[in-house]
Design brief:
The chain has 245 residues and is mostly helical. Helix content is 51%, strand content 0%. Helix 7 packs antiparallel against helix 8.
Length: 245
């Protein structure tokens, strides 16, 4: 698909017109296959998604001998691989690429959701090549998961309500409620629902208490008396209303 996309774009007098004509013939909007760029998140997924939507067009132009694109023709098994693409990674990367939404507290839940998907893989009907790729991906995920133990920030971020986490973790309205440091919707209950070892849960609680222990006996400063004008109105309020006293 990547090679086909490149060939179409760079054949402005032969393949490109043929692609556009095929799109029209099959009643589809004329659009090119997105380019797969190594430095752009999800570009491979986006390219394959459009290719699947335009399967009839891809099959037509790759099956046309006069276009010399037969080497890009996909077999039924290869289309099965396209269908096996993991949408969960699309959701995860889109989530963490948004500066106004992504927080530390989301990292572990999202990794858990992805890990659940990996765990269920053996019971799913996937192409062998995809299963092999998932095995490597899970190894990478486990490597980064283990590194969260090196930072108290991750444990504290997860250690603060009793909302259970399901796949709804991917829903933006829920994610915008997450706090950067203390997550009000998880607390230790999250780990219990995930079946974590009680020893680890106790450790997380101890770390949290130790981190905030210095603040337990701190006295909060008393609020200052509001400054009022000659008419007994808060000066700040007067200024905001452009009232001159």
């Amino acid at each position: 698909i990547r090679g086909l996309s490149f060939a179409i774009i760079h054949s402005t007098t032969i393949a490109l017109p043929a692609w556009r004509e095929a799109c029209t013939t099959h009643g589809l909007n004329v659009r090119l296959l997105p380019r797969d760029v190594a430095t752009r998140w999800n570009s491979t997924y986006d390219m394959m998604k459009v290719a699947r939507e335009y399967t009839a067009v891809v099959d037509e132009i790759t099956g046309n001998k006069s276009l010399n694109l037969r080497k890009f023709e996909l077999s039924d098994k290869q289309w099965d691989i396209v269908d096996d693409l993991l949408h969960i990674f699309k959701s995860a990367t889109l989530l963490f690429s948004r500066d106004n939404i992504s927080t530390i507290a989301q990292v572990i839940p999202m990794m858990d959701v992805i890990d659940d998907f990996f765990t269920e893989t053996p019971t799913r009907m996937l192409h062998p090549a995809v299963k092999s790729a998932l095995t490597l991906a899970q190894a990478t995920l486990n490597k980064y998961y283990s590194r969260t133990d090196d930072s108290n920030v991750y444990r504290i971020a997860m250690s603060t309500s009793s909302l259970s986490l399901t796949i709804s973790v991917l829903t933006p309205p829920v994610l915008t409620m997450f706090n950067v440091v203390l997550h009000p919707n998880f607390k230790l209950e999250y780990f219990r629902k995930r079946g974590w070892d009680q020893v680890w849960i106790n450790t997380a609680e101890e770390i949290l208490r130790e981190e905030f222990k210095p603040y337990v006996d701190m006295d909060a400063p008393a609020p200052e008396d509001p400054k009022v004008c000659a008419h007994g109105v808060d000066i700040g309020y007067c200024y905001n209303l452009f009232i001159l006293c």
